[in-house]
Amino acid sequence: MKFENTGFEKMKADLNRLDDVMLDYGLVREGQWDYERVTYDRKFELKEGVFYLRVRGYAVEGDVDTNKAVIQLMTPLLGKHYYPHGVEYGEGENFPTSLVNQCKKILDDVKSEVEKFAL
Description:
Elements: E1 12-14, H1 15-24, E2 37-46, E3 49-63, E4 68-73, E5 77-82, E6 86-88, H2 97-115
Antiparallel strand pairs: 1-4, 2-3, 3-4, 3-5, 5-6
């Protein structure tokens, strides 16, 4: 599921500050990066299954591995994990309304914080 029209696609931000804000909201980068891309995930374990809120981005300046980069954010996603295949984001997935609302709140809060220092 894509969270369209969030405004994330219009924001660029310093990687280190972005890491701090995302972590404050439970979105973790850990090993989810390469030289040009980052992925922040928050895991939700519910009776309906395991879900991930995912915010992705790519470097428009610098390199992620040096921790000196400007990241262009992308449309946030919500996916359901299927073992052993991975995460599915498709339109045919059913996401609990309470989870969708919780993710929207998290994304609104993250956006408010990142807008303070976005480039």
